[in-house]
Design goal:
Shape: elongated
Largest sheet: 5 strands, parallel
Order of helices and strands: EHEHEHEHEHEHEHEHEHEH
Number of helices: 10
Strand order of the largest sheet: 2-1-3-4-5
Number of strands: 10
Structural class: alpha/beta
Length: 254
């Protein structure tokens, strides 16, 4: 039976200490292999890996090109790293990598029990969807909501509500990374919801993209005039929607 979770240890050499960590990780039922921290080697092994362990030993650190590569690809794909090394090496690398990319840092010598707990904690968070971008979809059409849920679930944490007032109530207790908001809704329209969101300090910074069923020039211009982060026609295909959402989150890294 294949192991569900997979990680790699990236280092200069596969030393005895690296192999010891590999064994500890494998004993925790997580697949692990050593990868030299060259860009080409890392690039060839990252497709099905969610966690990269960077092990620095004897003052050796990844080059700037490797650091830049990890920053770009791992952030784009929502992967994270655990750093291991001497205090000075950790501080230097932590200063070069985005804060959101680093799940945990460990000074050597490594506390193996605490390290394995962190690895297990990471994959539990992955299973719970804690690292996925969260999207609130607001639309009064239950069929459209079900379709969007089917398209987005798995890639994003998705919450559905069928009215603007439910959206406001939900956002009073929860945070999201993006709102997909139906432009044409009864009672409280999309523009009215956007106005309420923008007038509240707690919600004014949440990106909003409109969903609209009207593609004529006048209707589209009316949507754009409200200055949302974007808009989607409801006739959009699944792959195009996913592609555009991925592009949005890539261009708006926190």
């Amino acid at each position: 039976m294949l192991k569900k979770n997979k990680t790699i240890i990236a280092s200069e050499n596969e030393t005895f200490l690296v192999r010891t960590l590999e064994k500890k990780i494998s004993d925790a039922d997580v697949s692990c292999e050593f990868v030299h921290w060259k860009v080409n080697d890392l690039n060839a092994h990252l497709d099905d890996v969610e966690l990269v362990i960077v092990y620095m030993e004897d003052g050796e650190r990844p080059t700037d090109s490797v650091t830049h590569f990890m920053s770009d690809r791992l952030m784009d794909e929502g992967k994270q790293v655990i750093l291991i090394g001497e205090k000075n090496d950790l501080q230097l690398l932590e200063g070069k990598l985005p804060k959101d990319l680093i799940f945990k840092s460990f000074e050597r010598p490594v506390d193996h029990a605490a390290f394995i707990d962190s690895v297990n904690d990471f994959f539990q968070k992955v299973e719970d969807g804690d690292f996925k971008k969260s999207i609130l979809v607001v639309d009064d059409d239950p069929n459209f909501l079900n379709l969007i849920r089917e398209w987005l679930t798995g890639t994003y944490k998705v919450t559905m509500v069928n009215s603007g007032l439910q959206a406001i109530k939900y956002l009073g207790k929860n945070k999201v990374d993006l709102i997909l908001l139906d432009h044409e809704m009864p009672v409280t329209s999309g523009p009215q919801v956007l106005e309420m969101l923008r007038s509240d300090d707690e919600t004014k910074g949440i990106p909003v993209m409109f969903l609209t069923g009207k593609s004529d020039k006048e209707s589209v211009m009316a949507v754009v005039a409200l200055k949302p982060e974007g808009y989607f026609l409801k006739t959009i295909e699944r792959e195009e929607l996913l592609k555009n959402l991925a592009k949005f989150f890539t261009l708006n890294k926190q």
